[in-house]
Amino acid sequence: MDLSIRFLFKNSTLFFDQKTIRIWKDQWDLAPEIIKSRLKSRFGLNFTLPARVCKVKRITKLVSDDFLNLNHLQKSTGAKLKYGLFLPNKYFRLLKNDFQFIDNEEEILVAVMTFSAAKKYYFGTEIVNSFELVRYGTLPYFNIVGGFSKLMRFFVNEKKPGNIMTYVDADWSDGQNFLKMGFKFIESTGPVFYKMGNNNERIPVAKADDFDVYNSGSLKFIKNGF
To answer: Would you tell me which of 68, 96, 126, 169 could form a disulfide with 76, CB atoms 3.0–4.6 Å apart?
Structure first.
């Protein structure tokens, strides 16, 4: 088949201080606002909100799924533990004048972080509880300063993990931010191949010779010593 349309953005690589971003046409077609938000974030152009004025609490699967399906490029996926970062109404004054919210709202969900259930992991001579950080997403065009760290601290205090592992999307990141937070790079995974569904969604396929699009793979990181 002619893949020229699907791969229109294959070589659309943007450079930011020697970092690269790969934008794929099917994702642009499905979620242009999410992609524009992430690009603006790289330039420091998104609205800035300090996490210190927000509070963290557990949220339901429904709330997590709704938020991530709207605001995360890879949408929601299975996760056992779900946390939300909320802006209380007494701090709504910090929002831009054109921000749309419901009258009498007590709080606004501005970020979500999800984790897998614990798995037993052999670390040296010890067996520890290992969790996977599955998703982190914010409202579009928001930069929540300290939001990632605040959600992570809440999770660590609640679950006392032995370690946390995560996969970073190599289309968008080289993982430097995770290294700065104390994570250790483990390995790179190869690209994942997909067929395109009727609604332009990506469906993973096992055979690399039967695909419409693919990604750049992932970078695996682990943080120990909690």
So the answer is: 68
Q: What is the pLDDT tens value at each position of the chain, 226 positions in all?
A: 333 333 334 444 444 444 678 888 888 988 999 999 999 998 899 999 999 999 999 999 999 999 999 999 999 998 999 999 999 999 999 998 778 777 778 999 999 999 999 999 887 788 889 999 999 999 999 999 999 999 999 999 999 999 999 999 999 999 999 999 999 999 998 888 888 888 777 787 877 677 877 788 899 999 998 7
Return d(Cα 17, Cα 174) in angstroms, integer. Answer: 12
- The Cα 184–Cα 173 span in angstroms is 15
Count Cβ atoms within 10 A of the Cβ of residue 217 and give its class: 0-12 exposed, 13-18 middle, 19 or more buried: middle
Residues in the chain, how many?
226
What does R_g of the chain's alpha carbons equal in angstroms?
19
Q: How far is CA 141 from its chain centroid?
A: 14
CA atoms of 111 and 37, how far apart (whole Å): 14
List the beta bridge partners of residue 203. 195
Beta bridge partners of 120: 129
What's the whole-model pTM score? 0.86
Q: What's 220's DSSP letter?
A: E
| DSSP symbol at 225 | -
